[in-house]
Hints:
The structure holds two protein chains of two kinds. By secondary structure, chain A is an alpha/beta fold.
Amino acid sequence: MSSIKKPPVTHPSARTNALGLKLRDYEGTMSTLCAGCGHDSVTAALIQAAWELAIPPHMAAKMSGIGCSAKTTTYFMKQSHGFNAVHGRMPSVTTGAAAANRDLICIGVSGDGDSLSIGLGQLCHAIRRDVNMLYIIDNNGVYGLTKGQFSAATDIGSRSKKGEVNTVPPIDPVLLALSLGATFVARSFSGDKQQLVPILKAGITHRGLALVDVISPCVTFNDHEGSTKSYAYTREHGAEAVTTDFVPLRREITIPETDAAVIEVPMHDGSLVRLRPTTAGYDPNDRASAYAHVRACQARGEVATGLLFVEESLKEMCDGLGLPQEPLVNLTHEALCPGSAALEALMERYR
Amino acid sequence: MAATDVSTPDYYHKVVDCQWACPAHTNVPGYLRFIAQGRYDDAYLLNRESNVFPGILGRTCDRPCEPACRRGRVDEKPVAICRLKRVAADHRGDITDRLPRGATVKNGKRIACVGAGPASLTVANDLLPLGYDVTIYEKNPTPGGLMRINIPAFRLPAQVLDEECDYIIRMGAEMRYDTPIESMRALLAEGYDAVFVGSGAPKGKELDLPGRWDAPDQVHIGIDWLANIHFGHSTAIEPRVLIIGVGNTAMDCCRTAKRVGATDVKVMARRGRKDFKASPWELEDAEEELVEIVENHSPKRFVVEDGKLTGMEFEIVEWKTDEKGKQRSTVLDTTIIPCDAVILAIGQDNAFPWIERDIGLEFGDWDMPVVDRRTFESTRPGVFFGGDAAWGPENIIWAVAHGHQAAISIHAHCEGRDLTERPPQGMTLVSAKVGMHSWAYDNDYDPSLRQKMTHEELTKRFSDIGVEVELGFTPEQTAHEVQRCLNCDIQTHFTAPLCIECDACVDVCPTRCLTITHNGSPVDDLREHLSAPALNPAQEIYVSDALPQTRRVMVKDEDVCVHCGLCAERCPTAAWDMRTFDLRLPYAGRDLVAR
Ligand SMILES: Cc1cc2nc3c(=O)[nH]c(=O)nc-3n(C[C@H](O)[C@H](O)[C@H](O)COP(=O)(O)OP(=O)(O)OC[C@H]3O[C@@H](n4cnc5c(N)ncnc54)[C@H](O)[C@@H]3O)c2cc1C
Ligand SMILES: Cc1ncc(C[n+]2csc(CCOP(=O)(O)OP(=O)(O)O)c2C)c(N)n1
Ligand code: SF4
Ligand code: SF4
Ligand code: SF4
Ligand SMILES: [Mg+2]
């Protein structure tokens, strides 16, 4: 909590994006999270990404469940839509929103508790369906909101603030997503915006579900020595597999041509994701090698970060279901509700 | 870049833009907070400590603090610092008990001051409490110098001036009015331990154009004319008046003329408006009184017919900047502007006919005494200069600043110490945190715009030269205006070993002042690669020691920090803290002043 609202003054150099909006126009209300919470940095990175992409605020939907992480949707894009679902149910509500309006930019923010315990099934099915959304997991290894219990993301051997050692194996959302066929899988760190912002931009632009597992330390319950999700531990053990540069449509490409290791992934809207593996031989287009790399890092006690796997999907959920391109809200009443004769005809097909 | 040293006063002092810009380094945010709390006496005395004449300066100061004010960089207009000083003065109670007192035990040293202007009075203010006998020689019958005889009463009421001069005189200054010093040699022969020359720059500049002496009664020297009006030697002027020059004196002349009979007053300027010497607010005030300001008219001759001045001829000029960046004029036309009187307000010169040139007191260029910029001593030991007498016309606050420094020198001289060893400035830095999320200052941002001063209505002002034009701020205006102050003295203080590099401070800062980055680039390069580019080279960049986790550094661009304290509120480890900075200025005999 802070005692005051952010002063409504901006830096004299503050620029406007293509929509004429300033960065601060993408802010939300003041955060009520603990001072120093990693989740606030993820929020700041989202604000930056949304501003740089010039997302029209009214075209975005901020979706969340329950947890400190879930609260953060209030802290950015105050002019956007939002839905705070019950614990673990953000994916299904988002699935509905994405189905009803294909033009919506769905940004889901969840926690490791919200997504890997109570909401694990929801997460898995959203990945399978390839719902067109950015799915952020603010991963702090604990249930922050309920005062620091171990979550399903807590590593074996990690100690709680009071000293207990976790003995139950963790679920790694990155490995889970890779094995379930996710089309965009990344891991980053709230304390590294240089890495995080381009990943978020690529994730928002990606067609299909973009899962971004963000190590986001809980300063209050999980930032002590012995924790494997602290600022210090993440800094020491983070191993970036690949650097990401997001090149929006129409921007001149200025990266030197000589860099042979660059892998370019064209996005459906014409923008470009340029990936530069920092580990020799790493191929972010190859699911099996991505999986193997993450496992190998894990075995060495390292945390693999970066945009680890991307495959610009051809068919996200709505395509698969054959839904109309038009948002349902734009359809005429007749199209939406063709009447009892049409229903009869349909039923006839199954008789 | 090396880590910034914040252990000496200069770094944090510079952050307090107004205090840094004030020649006397008045603690502006400190007194504004006192006003906000209704503590007018404290506000007045805190002012008086450094600037000696809060009531006078609250109406007349040249206010170098205001163009420097941080608020002006985030919100168009600076805080009305000067007029809030007047609020402190107008609302103070009886503070005589809390004023410095003349010493009862004398130290046996005798000081002579020439002139009873602000410079000499400041010297007396600082030396009387130390036991000095101070004698002030003044050629006029009253104290105050130009503040009394030139600054018109409609800007500075006599009662305000009297009170503040009296505070000093009552400390035991020996006033010798109506006593012009006519010989420095004779004065020195009286055996004073030191002499301070605060005689001002009393000579108005001449304009020796054709016709100047053909109708001398209708052509006046501005500062002399104002003095004549003040003393009642002159009580009226003809209807159509031209003022030559567009500086501060011109502004007082045109407005005074309007009050003693002139109906059509034009201020004639050689240059365009952007090059005027007068402050914008003075121009506004004059124009409000229906004075016409005429640009790009260069005087050519006085038009005198049958021994009577009937007008003045001007060249209408156009100004262009040449290759060397110098402004050059070309004449487009000439014109005669009819008038019945001309007032010359084109500047002042010093004049020291009373100082002999063979007494070991050297004169240099432009027949000005050679005075040391740091010690204020002339080439004759024991003779000091300050105020307008030292290096030509300035203003009141500079005269005060000089007076303080000269007093330090005089004290050292009388004690046989080296004058060049100046007493250092000090500082205290105390955490402003008084609770979980509360601070010893109001950190919320007040979006109010600068309050507009209310003026007396025109007919009433012209009815009597003594009617003060500015009515002062109402309580509501004061309440808003003090809250516009950003509390720049509440410093963001950083302790690098505590930082866990969570970015909370960087993220929350409304004006993107903070960056955590790798150290290595030269400062100019660094300036361009921060969260927001550091656009203002006049403002410092703070660089921390290496941070514990990554060896990166915390960088802060001071330029548009609004001192909201959010960085400190969002910092989980109190690596950022808000700390109240108090500059301790040395004065004569009191090396460091504690509040
Ligand atoms: C018209 C006008 C308007 C101004 N308005 C402002 C303003 O609004 N704000 C501002 O800050 N400044 C203003 N100034 C400037 C300001 O008044 C001076 O800078 C300031 O008063 C200088 O102080 P001082 O102590 O050096 O000398 P002065 O104030 O000039 O005092 C010198 C004194 O010495 C006396 N004296 C001179 N020679 C002798 C001698 N031989 N023997 C004895 N006595 C002597 C004089 O009579 C005078 O009283 C204005 C100046 C003018 C001319
Ligand atoms: C149905 C239901 N069960 C349990 C809870 C209690 N609860 C609130 S938040 C939370 C865990 C949040 O953990 P996480 O998603 O990691 O969020 P964080 O606070 O760590 O960001 C739990 C179990 C609840 N609100 N609702
Ligand atoms: S409890 Fe932990 S996760 Fe929740 S706001 Fe505080 S620091 Fe963040
Ligand atoms: S006080 Fe801190 S948060 Fe506020 S403007 Fe200054 S640096 Fe930024
Ligand atoms: S909030 Fe505090 S701990 Fe976090 S980066 Fe800023 S100074 Fe460091
Ligand atoms: Mg959690």
